[in-house]
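To illustrate the input format used throughout this study, we show a single complete record. The first block contains the structure-token representation of the backbone; no residue identities are included at this stage. The design step must infer an amino acid for every position from geometry alone.
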């Protein structure tokens, strides 16, 4: 069984919940990624911040990205996956919550991110097609 730990991107960089969305956008650009985990001062995962969140929830409604805090965009309970969970569980969680990236947790520690592309490389083509169809219905 392939696990999240085996297909994840390790060494994840968090954006602090108290950092501005502008700082987060610069970090996204610097790292060449589309999403960052939001971590609190306690180093616990508070949410995920995506480039889409910045455009839709900040820029698109006329807010100043230098004034909005990354933590303000964290919504509800964070959807995560355990480091030792298999690809079937990853697939089920992504489909159920309609997310394309999952923070990977080992205990209470963030150890990586599993993206849709990581799952796609680990699954048969037909299963990946089903996942893409499920995730694309609301976009």
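Output of the design step:
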């Amino acid at each position: 069984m392939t696990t999240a730990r085996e297909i994840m991107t390790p060494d994840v960089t968090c954006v602090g919940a108290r950092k501005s969305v502008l700082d987060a956008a610069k970090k996204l650009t610097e790292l060449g990624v589309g999403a960052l985990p939001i971590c609190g001062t306690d180093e616990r995962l508070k949410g995920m911040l995506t480039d889409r969140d910045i455009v839709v929830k900040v820029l698109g409604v006329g807010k100043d990205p230098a004034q909005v805090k990354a933590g303000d965009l964290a919504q509800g309970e964070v959807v995560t996956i355990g480091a030792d969970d298999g690809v079937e569980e990853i697939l089920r969680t992504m489909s159920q919550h309609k997310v394309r990236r999952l923070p990977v947790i080992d205990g209470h520690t963030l150890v990586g991110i599993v993206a849709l592309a990581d799952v796609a490389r680990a699954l048969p083509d037909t299963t990946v097609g089903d996942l893409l169809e499920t995730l694309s219905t609301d976009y």
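Structural context for interpreting the output: The beta strands are 9-10, 15-16, 35-39, 45-50, 81-82, 101-106, 109-115. Helices lie at 4-7, 21-31, 51-58, 87-97, 116-122, 125-136.
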